[in-house]
Description:
By secondary structure, this protein is an alpha/beta fold. Helix content is 34%, strand content 26%.
Amino acid sequence: MDIVTICGLKKYFGAGSRLVKALDGIELSIEKGRLTAVIGPSGSGKTTLLGIIGGLYEPTEGSVIVGGVHLSTLSEEQLTVFRRRKVGFLFQECRLIPELTVEENILFPLALDDSFPDRAFFAGLTDFLELSDRLDWYPRMLSGGQQKRVAIARALITKPALILADEPTGSLDLKNGRNIAGLLRRTTDVFHQTLVMVTHSRELAQMADRVVRLRDGRLI
Ligand code: ADP
Ligand code: MG
């Protein structure tokens, strides 16, 4: 089953002499439960592609279906709900909220939605990510790797249809980057998550089920 179906996708920025064809005719399906790596040189459209799948940007042309929903049919308000419930985002920076504890940070996407956590799932997730004894700590008290693990838990807590990760290990040193990459792979396997991950690292791409290459806004 496909979680994402993209047809004839184009995304242009600017106009005239400043026109940038960030994505220029993309056909892509992403299967449920798999880890797809998106690679390509800087400026090839990786972040733009992720942003469009996540409903952050609107395509210039083409259709994007995520979890059976045509994103173009959603109002601004429905898109906000879509992003909150259907997608888990992981960025290069962790973007944790400094005033909130680890537990509050992880549960934040649910709090935004006025929904209650599945406590057993929360316990299993934080246990798996070795955060159980850090739940009442604040982000500044954690190492970079621990902060990453909090961000991973926060991306999974809503049991989203898919997780979108943009260079999730980019801010870490080699060793921590490897650890987090392996952990991300195991976490998505254990919790049956679909992950689309942009990466610069060949090594990271190797652990993916599938590698998608972008160049100048096209798949190659
Ligand atoms: P990547 O993530 O592969 O480095 P991006 O998707 O960020 O590439 O960018 C693809 C192209 O689109 C680049 O040429 C970039 O400058 C351009 N671009 C991205 N976002 C914007 C924007 N908001 N306004 C104008 N140009 C943009
Ligand atoms: Mg990018």
